[in-house]
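Reviewers of the previous submission asked for a worked example of the structure-prediction workflow described in the proposal, so we include one complete record here. The input consisted solely of the amino acid sequence. No template or homolog information was supplied to the procedure at any stage.
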Amino acid sequence: MPPSGNPSGSRPVFPHKRPRVRAVRVKDELVLIAPETSLRAEPKLKNRALVLNSSGRAIWDLCDGKRTIEDIVGALESRFSSDRKSLSRQVRGTLSDMSKAGFLEKLARPSREADCSLDESTAGRPDPDAGVESCAIGFLDGAVNVATDCDRTAKALRKLFERTAATPDLPSLAEMQISVSDDKAKLVGDGRTLATGRLGPKFFREVYRKAVERFIDRHSGLLWLHAGCAASGGAVVMPGAWGHGKSSLVVELYRHGWSFLSDDVTPIEAGGGMVIPFPVTPQIRVPTTQELPREKLGSVPKEAVTIDPDRIASAPVPLSMIVLPRYASKAATQLSPVSPARAVAALLENCLNFACDEDSMIRHACALVDAYPVYDLLFSDVADAAESLIDTHAEIVRSVRRKSEKENSGETGVVSSARPVDVEIVLTGGVRHSLVLPSDSPLLAELFEALARGARPDDRSHTLLQLPVGGGRTALSFMSSSLISVITTPAVLISSKPELETEAPTFVQIDDFLTKAENRRLLDYALQHESEFSDSGVTTKADDYRRSRVLYTISDSKWRDIFVSRLMRHLPDIRSTLELPDFQIAKTEIQLTASGDGDFFRAHPDGGGSNEATSSREVTFVYYLHRRPKPFSGGNLLIYRDEPDHDGSDKDNGVCKITPKNNSLVAFASTRWHEVKTVHCSSGKFADSRFTVNGWLHRQ
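From that input alone, the workflow returned the following structure tokens.
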């Protein structure tokens, strides 16, 4: 739709809702979803779901085919405070988004659907007398049999469907046959041609899609998602369009010990939240030496990944979280919660059987979003993304287990020392809201902290706060800068000291600290000097405190000068961010550490105290380097705000967790307590170690 209601004197445009577009109310937003979002649609056709806020809903409601754009602007003028010019610009922009996404049409110009059907005159039928090999693809209670008289085709089919091979007792749902002539292939079924094309990956994907369609027809009550899935104590489903990294994430999680469920299509029992395995052999893009934008990923060939049969889930797995992956070149890894409306839109957008039963799929999607956490995962480095996902998933699984244990033991989930508090908040404009919270609620502490930040004129940091409304069914969201006061009954008094004082950031992380060429050469240097690494120790000579191997001679190499030079560039920012006093550097220590399977370093500070060798340390730095993809797991660096308990209890309080990221450097005050968690490296090879360059800047 053109952005103007009457461009160049042509006829006025009458925005009209396309037939069968569904509008779903989710909380305070509206999700538009087109029924063409199905397996039978063009696989790269996306943006079929759109989330609208209150003003977008008002515009959508007026798109009846009887009003021009100017009529819509006029109808909304009395409802919104914007001037007509601004309102007109907003309306046109929203209508343009709706039109581009395919939700609107012009009343006087009905859309014409392209005829994408194949020429049925060329359809053939399987020759019953031909000598053929058959590949039976099984799912639950049925099988799709694909026959061919081409050995190469039969081999490719067996490779693709080797983990979904049907048992002989499964009844046949459909019979298909592939005939090949001069590398030209034709798929025939139900007495007609289903697909034709050059024999290759694209054609086999079409065979795969046709087989999945048969299973969808058989089990249309399931929620079939275009998604990958892996599990570890609970299933993580990752729906998304092509090129968003679903397969790469699934394979990376598998390499971390997770079970494999699916690479591309994931069926879910929506009522019970059980994910059913559909383990087609995964294929990931061949690694390249450069990061490519998503639009160029299609040119990168894929390769099959061998999956251990013992690591494939053989039964449905309970869902624990949903992740929406978004690969973007050079993006830093960021895992963040998604609004309910955006989550529902993403599920319906990637629902393969939405057109089969729209009402049921909408109910199923809303139920899943209401019951399970949904996150957006932006990333460019799949290893870092997997580490972040693993950490968050572990917290969710632990939380669910604790809740289950409390419910089974009859506990209320509220500690006995807490008491209910009536809380009334006042926002700018006189808006008031009341709720009841435990006196030790983290949310109540967040409200007090937001008030304290607002009282400091030099603090311009604002955060998003969310309060439960209606028994937790909805949420009130607002910026902390809008908070005027918090009234508690009975009174909840807080200290004006540590809790509400701002504290300098715990650490600074610098990505791409070295050039890529330097990073590779440094790893080669480490491998070439393997025999010179010796067992590590600590100045206190304590046993069972640290385990790793160290190369001390790096301090006499060119690498010391490179690190000192690079650190001096960043030192002003490091000092400013960590709020460290200005100091003259007396010396720089540097060592290269290799942490293999089972290695660790207990909690400790690097500086301060009475030890002459370490008391003058001001800044600690840790530089990470390792093979790609990352051949180990664990080895996270934990930095504490205060000295942790040494009895092993509650050690994660006030802690920052840093996942090893190749070619990044972390700097923090040497007086900070920190530790390195246990490294897990299944190969046990030195080359697969967690390598770090550790160092300290000493003051004079």
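The longest strand covers residues 317-327. We consider this example representative of the routine output the project will generate in years two and three.
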